[in-house]
Amino acid sequence: MPTILMPALSPTMEEGKLAKWLKNVGDQVKSGDVLAEIETDKATMEIEAIDEGVLTAIMVPEGTEGVKVNAPIAVIREASAQPSPGASAPVSPVKGETQKEAQSPAVNQVSPPAGETVVRSTTGEGGVLSDPEIPAGTEMITMTVREALRSAMSEEMRRDKDVFLMGEEVGQYQGAYKISQGMLDEFGPERVLDTPITEHGFTGIATGAAFAGLKPIVEFMTFNFAMQAIDHIINSAAKTLYMSGGQMGCPIVFRGPNGAAARVGAQHSQDYTAWYSQIPGLKVVAPYSAADAKGLMKAAIRDPNPIIFLENEILYGKSFEVPNLEDWVVPIGKARVARAGTHVTIVSFSIGMTYALAAAEKLAAEGIECEVIDLRTIRPMDVETVVESVKKTNRCVCVEEGFPRFSVTSELAAEIMTHAFDYLDAPVARVAGKDVPMPYAANLEKLALPNVDDVVAAVKGVLYV
Amino acid sequence: MAVSSAYLARKAAKAEKSTKSSAKVELKNSGLSSDEELKAYYDMLLIRRFEEKAGQLYGMGSIGGFCHLYIGQEAVVVGMEMSAIEGDQRITSYRDHGHMLACGMEAKGVMAELTGRQGGYSKGKGGSMHMFSREKQFYGGHGIVAAQVPLGAGLAFANKYRGNKNVSMVYFGDGAANQGQVYETFNMASIWKLPCIFVIENNRYAMGTSATRSTAASDHLGARGEAFGIPSEQVDGMDVRAVKEAADRAMEHCRSGAGPYILEMMTYRYRGHSMSDPAKYRSKEEVQKMREEHDPIEQVKARLLKSNRASEDDLKKMDADIREIVTAAADFAVADAQPDASELYTDIYKVA
Asked: What is the per-residue pLDDT for B161?
């Protein structure tokens, strides 16, 4: 009796919602029949039967949220009635998205509504300290990074008609990662443009439009694909203001997920933070929390310069408190002390913050108090905030997911040496991704990425304990 | 353009008369009024003399780096500009001096940029290949082969987004026509109906490689637009009349909302790819033949003289005026101060 398991429908999916059963108990099922609709945080998908027989049990009723991948959801008794105990059916193959139309009601249910707590959360969430930029008494609402990015773009597009969004699948498909969900409906196809799969070309077109004074937001499905377009980002967008003696200008935001997702191999798992941060003329932003994602996205869209806005796929579904303000803008170029401490400074950004905050939590239990700094903006880097902290703690660990050589953390180490040499009681330690292309195998991938224990060990290293 | 208005006014009466008397014939044969013909002559000659002077300054060490001269191709930009209206944009490659002069940028500012002085269009920070003028809607000056093609389509995108009637003129060479981003751009320009004229300046050589050695079906590059549903014309780019007529058709097409248009201009550069190119890949005879039989400036000159719309003296006077402008530009460009050292750190970021 094959058991149907909750399928994983994307590389990063851990759980999903069983939106709808299309078969009832007792129904005859043929291979290829659609059994149910599953909603992930990215899309609504159909699962098909691969076995023939009668649907004898439904274990998870429709409407259930947070169903873990590989949890049993139904049982089909084979027509030939040859029960083979213990043999489970493999995950049913994915048929494809059910949602094709922007107007489809299913689409609007894909993500939880703003304010609803997302079930999935990871360590570190509790590490978000009250932010001095938020006025006292401000109401906070819980929001995923995905929702924060969407609301920032939508607010800015309502505010300024020169702002538009372009990229692959941003419109009718509602966004490959559902960041732009619903935006086509609100703003129409003139301002939410689906592009062909042609990064070099559409990045050039967007940059030209920015030369003419429009304010494009270019979504790269992932920053891995932006390598095809990097000539326009650097040679056209970043350098033209200088080359024109200040006459031109390029108000544009290049955004999308950056860095490793999960199990997608070397070509889809690269962190480009250090690459872009090397370029004068670019500003590079890499938020961790939803509040920063929202506030920095709004700042990026208003900035008259080309901005590289590096998101992280793993963080998209993570929930944070976001101030419920009419116009929440976080200034570019300012780090944030996410956790106060006196023994060691940990500096990180983007998903690196999850390791940094979790390590700080773990170390606190041992009596080691870490000050955790979220850079938020990588270029221009807020060296001052880092140096001020190091002057207090005299020790520093820098954390990132990217390659370790010529990296953001090597730059941090150099800056700290230059500006706080006399305050250091130990060499600056760095925790980064390994110096290898990202492997596919689950165990190797895990080894290639930094983790909480690496950070804990590095902190103990600089403390000589 | 900086044509002496007194000169034109003086010529106008005379030209008007001859235009009227042979209006039909002239339209059919020329497409240019006397004023236009004189203006074309002036504009092309200004480019020619400017480039000759730039070559000279390069030889003297006043201009550094790369310097790509436009001599021989003057009819292309001048003919195109005759069709442009206020607000139309233009963008091109690194062979850009002619485009800047043709759209009305001042010789002084262009030359001073070539010498890297503070009075240059980019304050000396761009050089020959990177100059811009917001005022004249000149968007560069791009050093990466074919990068200007999607950028130019982006300017057209802005026109469409804003719902105005302006057209973006996007110039690139036969060499750039082999870059992938050109076809990515054709595709999007076509599906989005962008008001964009792709002007392929086919001067037969991609740096030192002839089109026949580097380019499939090199006898008609414009035809590559067919695959994307973009209409194209092959134009005698040495004849400013033909250029202007084709430009008129292309402009009308774009302004009507029908999408992009390709004009393949068959042209020729007399000089090497850049100042350091001895042009050994082609024969002296080939160059000589073009100069003698197809020179864009000589063609107009012959017509003006033949139709008595200008005398030798008129044209000599015009040449003298132009030489004066160019000499003044060169004098300024070598005398002007270099940018202040503080300029090193300016214009990297715009302050909101």
From this structure: 98
Specify if B201 maps to a domain.
yes
| B54 touches B62 (CB < 8 A) | no
B16: in domain: no
Write the DSSP assignment of A415-441 as a string of letters.
HHHHHHGGG-SSPPEEE---SSPPPSS
Is some CB atom of chain B closer than 8 A to the CB atom of A203? yes
Q: What is the mean pLDDT of residues A7-33?
A: 88
Chain B interface includes A283 (CB < 8 A): yes
CATH code (residue B299): 3.40.50.970
**Structural domain range at position B303:** 33-273+285-332
3-state secondary structure of B157: helix
Number of domains in chain B: 1
The pLDDT mean for chain B works out to: 92
What is the C-alpha to C-alpha distance for residues A102 and A95, in angstroms, rounded to an integer?
A: 19
Q: How far apart are CA A97 and CA A217, in angstroms?
A: 26
CA separation (Å) from A109 to A40, A95, A114, A123, B153? 10, 19, 11, 27, 37
Q: How many CA atoms lie within 13 A of B173 on its CB side?
A: 26
**Cis preceding linkage at A11, omega within 30:** no
Residue A117 has pLDDT above 60, yes or no: no
| Domain assignment present for B8 | no
Domain contains B349? no
Predicted model pTM: 0.87
Looking at this protein, which amino acid is placed at residue A444?
L
CB contact under 8 Å between B188 and A201, yes or no, is: yes
Residues of A in contact with B228 (CB under 8 A): none
**CB nearest A201 (choices: B120, B150, B159):** B150
Catalytic residue among A37, A199, A321, A401: A199
For residue A268, indicate whether it is catalytic. Answer: yes
Which of A193, A231, A246 is facing B147, going by the closest CB pair?
A231
* Tens of pLDDT, residues B2-35: 444 444 454 454 444 444 443 333 444 457 898 9
